[in-house]
Amino acid sequence: MTWDNVPIYLMLVVTELSEAMEAWRDDNPEAFKEEVADALIRIFHMCGDLKMDVSNAINVKMLVNRTRPYKHGRKRV
Q: DSSP 3-state helix, strand, coil percentages of the chain (rounded to 5)?
């Protein structure tokens, strides 16, 4: 896989998330969980093919997010 294939992978993720939305609308929790799992599998597959250290990227991003105000400075609703 090359960087040029990333749009294909991302659209496959979007497709799985669209299916998750449809399952949510149908009030189908089992199908919803399956589609969310499919989206994560697609993301992890892409990251693996790109040889990304996604675990480290998540940890770094979580550390950054801890320093940010709640909802990026917006008031709680």
A: 80, 0, 20
Q: In which domain, by residue range, is 30 found?
A: 3-73
pLDDT tens digit sequence for 10-26: 999 999 999 999 999 99
Q: Model-level pTM?
A: 0.81
Place of tokens 């993720």: 13
Residue partners of 31: CB distance under 8 A and separation at least 6:
19, 23
Could you tell me the CATH number of the domain that includes residue 38? 1.10.287
Reported for 26-32, long-range contacts at CB under 8 A and 24+ positions apart, including other chains, are none
